[in-house]
Specification:
The complex is a heterodimer.
Chain A: H1 5-9, H2 18-49, H3 65-94, E1 101-108, E2 111-115, E3 121-123, E4 125-129, E5 134-140, E6 145-149, E7 154-158, E8 164-168, E9 174-180, E10 193-198, H4 200-209, E11 216-217, E12 223-224, H5 227-237, E13 263-264, E14 272-273, H6 276-284, H7 306-318
Parallel strand pairs in A: 1-5, 4-10
Antiparallel strand pairs in A: 1-2, 2-3, 5-8, 6-7, 6-9, 9-10, 11-12, 13-14
Helix pairs in contact in A: 2-3, 5-7, 6-7
Chain B: H1 2-5, H2 27-31, H3 36-64, H4 75-110, H5 119-141, H6 171-198, H7 211-243, H8 256-290, H9 297-310, H10 326-354, H11 363-386, H12 388-394, H13 398-428, H14 434-460, H15 475-505, H16 550-553, H17 557-565, H18 567-575, H19 578-583, H20 588-599, H21 625-632
Helix pairs in contact in B: 3-4, 3-5, 3-15, 4-5, 4-6, 4-7, 4-8, 4-13, 5-6, 6-7, 7-8, 7-9, 8-10, 8-11, 8-13, 9-10, 10-11, 11-13, 11-14, 13-14, 14-15, 17-20
The chains are: A alpha+beta, B mainly alpha.
Chain lengths: 320, 634
């Protein structure tokens, strides 16, 4: 691990911005290691060499002003240099290239939602073309989240009430891991996602097909897709299971098992029949009717196209 | 301990030779005491309980990480556990640990005075701390908080009971707890500043001030200036959550990043409230166990003040990825690197002090050296985080967790426990089992490094902090870290048993078991109520080993043995100590040593070179410092 620190200490690098930061990381790592060895070595050497012996008196401490000034000024020069190079790299990496593709990233408890320039939305998974500069425009629907893509070495808080930005250019094909890096409540550690970096052609194909029901879906991604199964895939991808169970167990939100076609008690007003209209309203306008006993957690807003909403309703219907 | 057993009847004035632990006993003599040492002891007990509590939370957190997914608790419980670990360790333990507990006992003794400037205020600050702690306990009983110790808005301030997006946890009692404990911190700071300015013994000039005092002085300045900002911030948070006043919550028109600026404006300087006193302790330990003045005394002293000052200007580095402008980040990054200078100066000077010293490796020194090693790692990894381009990747990962644990535990806790080992004989008049102390140190040192070195690696590989669940690829790292934390816990348990054993049947401690030249070791262990038998006059610095007499540097074992061998005789001596106290020396210990030597039939002259500090009433305070200085220069 000391011999191959780069591959041991850092994850795979997949963006144009990553190598410059990684190089700085390695520079400061080697500097620190050498410094630590020197300090500790000197300390241990002195401790052994000047162990207390009978009859040997310690030498009186002398005034060493010149030495003091030396070890005050020398590190200062070094620090100015590392500050300068790291700031330069930081600003270069923070500046988005001209004509970068804009991706809206919305953090909500506890899922990431991405919106492509054509208006299509996707949760948890983001597909990006390789070698095309991207500008993420971050915001949050509720509390502070932080959008962290490990292999891209980028991170920025998504703050409610304001926008923040990340500039990045993916350079390697493959998958990168998305984390939420700012604590945001119960399922903070499940607020994950994946960036798929694909070729330009695959990216265009993905955009075309995104809003339509795919041929295959499900857990394995190989089953013949039905509306209910696609609904289940969307349900999982959008992070719904973090609050809504489908087996009747109690969570932050009502379990959806056997809900369809039954009367639901509300916090305000008369009970309501859980039919297609009620489920649709609960998905698209979650605050409209709240089931009794579930005021502690606010469900975030989701935007779905009609075929997706239909699929989700079909899935809820299937939960007997 | 013969002095303690002295029976006395009908005294109105306290017996000047009687230990502060003797004299009046019973619960009232403690809870209404104005004696800084007794208040310090009560603080010490309180912070130790807090430390054990915070430690249990930490072990629960680590245990949960033994496997990914659920191990022993659900996500909400985990979130509460890590939050409580943070809140308890920061507000109930670290901040009061060295200043309020240890500083309270040692500061007036090192200053050669009877007490702090405002003894009643001192007792009040203890009670304010306890009231604050009660609010904290109340919150814990009601489920605790899950906001982390940072209480970031709007998660903390937006109450779902009123349609908000935040946490339903009992945030208010916990923020009130921190709010209230802040006043305790401010009052202690005011008290110490006044004491250092006004209560120094005659001859104790600023240039002769022990480095621990300089550190406490710098800390007190931060406590007085920074804590009010935390108070007002938490008050605003409370008003937002309770009254719906829009300050930080964007849904009410507020700005959540403003909270982070306010919070870190206190909490970054608070990092120096935590670490600077630990540095002070280490300076004392290094000087004593190398028998040598710390190299660059004035530079080390001023670097404490330097840290206090620069510490106020770097809060923005907690917000590098929080939506601050790139140029604000630039300024904060530059200022952050400045912090490395005074920290580096201290480390260089400590190591240089060992050069040509006379080093003994008794347990306090192990903690002192451990501090230097671990703090150096903590400081160097701070450079990674100060570098903007590197911080973007490392921010909010386990790398940061490991970094601040190296500073807070590797630094402050090592300093605290080291100081406890160092001054324990003085506080209690008892020695502890050195073998157990070494075993405890070994477990803590090894356990700590196993726990947190691993966290650097999983952090730089991308593991975010405050995660209940984690990706399977991080499992091995988490498991190693958890095993390390068990070793760490075991080490502290050994030390706890050791200290309790010492209290129950520890061997009596002599006046100066480490052979130190510092003032606090020239008074009996434990010290009398007024700290010294007669008011000391200071004629040299606390580390002037070349000016200290044989009698001052004598560890006092012979004197102790003699007293123990002839308890009745000692008894008689201590019934009429005033004569010794004034006629021979201002220093009871020297007097006692003379007694002991006389009893042992030795022929000893009191002070052959006339170089006693705080001793001879006839000695002129400034007399010898210069001529003997020149005499010894080569």
């Amino acid at each position: 691990m000391i011999l191959a620190p780069e591959t041991f200490q850092l994850p795979r690098s997949m963006s144009a911005e990553a190598p410059s930061g990684d190089a700085l990381y390695m520079d400061i790592y080697w500097f620190s290691l050498v410094f630590l060895v020197l300090i500790t070595g000197a300390m241990l050497y002195f401790v052994v060499k000047y162990r207390r012996k009978k009859g040997v008196r310690p030498e009186r401490t002398r005034d060493l002003t010149k030495l003091e000034i030396f070890w005050t000024i020398t590190p200062l020069i070094f620090l100015v240099i590392i500050f300068h190079v790291s700031f330069e790299t930081y600003v270069k990496n923070a500046t988005a290239a001209e004509g970068a593709m804009e991706i809206r990233v919305r953090g909500k408890k506890w899922s990431w939602e991405f919106e492509y320039p054509n208006g299509s939305r996707e949760a948890k998974e983001l597909t990006l073309p390789v070698n095309k500069p991207v500008k993420f425009i971050l915001s949050s629907d509720d509390v502070i989240h932080s959008f962290f893509v490990r292999e891209f070495r980028v991170k920025r808080d998504a703050v409610p009430g304001q926008y923040s930005y990340i500039a990045v250019t993916p350079t390697e094909l493959g998958d990168a891991q998305i984390f939420c890096a700012e604590f945001c409540g119960t399922s903070h550690s499940d607020m994950l996602g994946t960036v798929h970096v694909v070729t330009d052609e695959q990216f265009r194909k993905h955009l075309d097909e995104m809003d339509k029901m795919p041929e295959v879906c499900g857990d394995t991604g190989k089953e013949q897709c039905t509306p209910a199964l696609w609904g289940r895939t969307l349900f999982v991808k959008n992070g719904c299971p973090t609050c809504h169970s489908v087996d009747g167990s109690k969570g932050n939100a009502p379990s959806l098992k056997g809900v369809f076609g039954t009367l639901q008690p509300l916090t305000q007003g008369p009970d309501v029949m859980a039919d297609e209209n009620y489920v649709r309203e609960s998905i698209l306008r979650p605050q409209a009717k709240i089931v009794k006993g579930f005021t502690n957690t606010q469900m975030p807003l989701f935007v779905f196209k009609d075929p997706q909403t239909d699929a989700l309703i079909a899935y809820v219907k299937s939960l007997k | 301990m013969a002095a303690v057993t002295t029976p006395h009847t009908g005294h109105h004035e306290p017996d000047p030779t009687e230990s502060y632990l003797g004299g009046e006993t019973g619960i009232k003599s403690w809870i209404f005491t104005l004696d800084h040492k007794r208040i310090g002891v009560m603080y010490l007990i309180s912070v130790t309980i807090a430390f054990l509590m915070g430690g249990v939370f930490a072990l629960l957190v680590r245990t949960e990480h033994l496997s990914h997914g659920r191990t022993i608790m659900d996500a909400d419980t985990y979130n509460r556990m890590f939050s409580l670990h943070g809140v308890v360790m920061v507000f109930l333990f670290i901040i009061p640990s060295i200043p309020a507990a240890m500083g309270n006992i040692i500061l007036p003794i090192q200053l050669g005075t009877k007490d702090v400037a405002f003894p009643r205020l001192n007792l009040m600050s203890l009670y304010i701390y306890i009231i604050g702690a009660c609010f904290g306990l109340y919150s814990m009983v009601h489920g605790g908080v899950d906001t982390g110790w940072t209480f970031y808005t709007p998660y903390s301030s937006s109450d779902p009971a009123h349609g908000g997006v935040g946490t339903p946890a009992a945030v208010l009692p916990m923020t009130l707890a921190a709010f209230i404990m802040g006043f305790s911190s401010i009052l202690t700071g005011v008290n110490f500043i006044a004491t250092v300015h006004k209560m120094r013994a005659p001859g104790l000039t600023w240039r002769r001030l022990p480095l621990f005092i300089w550190a406490l002085y710098a800390t007190s300045i931060i406590q007085v200036l920074a804590t009010p900002v935390l108070a007002i911030t938490l008050l605003l948070l409370t008003m937002e959550r309770f009254l719906g006043l829009g300050i930080f919550d964007p849904h009410l028109g507020g700005d959540p990043v403003l909270y982070q600026h306010f919070f870190w404006f206190y909490s970054h300087p608070a990092v120096y409230i935590m670490i600077v006193p630990g540095m002070g302790v280490v300076s004392e330990i290094i000087a004593t166990f190398a028998r040598r003045e710390v190299v660059g005394y004035m530079f080390v002293a001023m670097s404490s003040l330097g840290l206090a000052l620069v510490g106020f200007l770097v809060w923005g580095h907690h917000l590098f990825v929080a939506g601050m402008s790139e140029y604000a980040a630039m300024v904060f990054s530059a200022l952050t690197f400045l912090v490395a200078i005074p920290s580096g100066v201290k480390v260089f000077n400590w190591v240089a002090t060992l050069y040509k010293g006379s080093i003994s490796l008794e347990s306090p020194m192990l903690w002192g050296l451990g501090f230097i090693f671990l703090f150096t790692i903590g400081g160097l990894t701070g450079l990674f985080l100060g570098m903007l381009a590197v911080d973007v990747h490392l921010h909010d990962t386990y790398f940061v967790v490991a970094h601040f644990h190296y500073v807070m535990v590797g630094g402050t806790v090592m300093g605290f426990v080291g100081g406890l080992h160092y001054w324990w004989p003085k506080f209690t008049g008892k020695m502890y089992d050195e073998k157990m102390a070494r075993v405890g140190f070994a477990f803590v040192f090894v356990g700590f490094n196993v726990t947190f070195l691993t966290q650097f690696v999983i952090g730089s590989r991308g593991m975010p902090r405050r995660y209940y669940n984690y990706l399977p690829e991080y499992e091995l790292g988490h498991q190693i870290s958890t095993i390390g934390s068990y070793l760490l816990g075991l080490g502290f348990f050994v030390l706890l048993v050791m200290f309790i054993q010492s209290l129950r049947n520890g061997k009596p401690a002599p006046r100066n078991p480490w052979g130190s030249a510092a003032l606090e070791w020239q008074t009996p262990s434990p010290p009398p109520l007024y700290n010294f038998i007669t008011d000391p006059i200071i004629t040299r610095g606390p580390y002037d080993y070349h000016l200290a007499t044989e009698a001052e540097l004598d560890e006092g074992w012979a004197e102790l043995d003699a007293r123990l061998a002839a308890p009745k005789k000692a008894h008689v001596d201590h019934d009429k100590p005033h004569a010794h106290g004034t006629s021979l020396s201002g220093d009871d210990a020297t007097a006692a040593k003379l007694d002991a030597d006389a009893e042992a039939g030795k022929d000893t002259t009191a002070d052959p070179d006339g170089k006693m500090d705080d001793a001879d009433p006839d000695a002129k305070p400034e007399k010898k410092s210069d001529d003997s200085d020149d005499g010894e220069k080569d």
